[in-house]
Design a protein that fits this description.
Length: 90
């Protein structure tokens, strides 16, 4: 059982507008992503995103991976990794 605040990686990836295997690939390749990882039985990967990201999802914001030139079109943005900028809107 994962600790509080952790979500199955595929679920949270799709809620963030990312591919379902985004976090699994990042974890396996050792990429620096602003989440905490929790691996169970060397099989199930859980992630804990930053609280501000979780709060936006709870507030029913829609999230997409965006390019830097699109920042002004979104209510809130968050740099999840070097190559992953998230945009939130309602």
């Amino acid at each position: 059982m994962p600790p509080n605040g952790f979500f199955i990686s595929g679920f949270i990836a799709t809620r963030l507008g990312l591919s379902e295997d985004y976090f699994k690939n990042a974890f396996r390749k050792g990429y620096n992503v602003d989440v905490e990882y929790f691996l169970t039985d060397n099989k199930y990967l859980f992630v804990k995103p930053p609280q501000i990201v979780v709060d936006k999802l709870i507030q029913d914001y829609i999230c997409l991976k965006i390019e830097k030139e699109d920042i002004e079109d979104f209510d809130f943005t968050y740099q999840l990794s070097k190559n992953c900028l998230l945009g939130f809107y309602k």
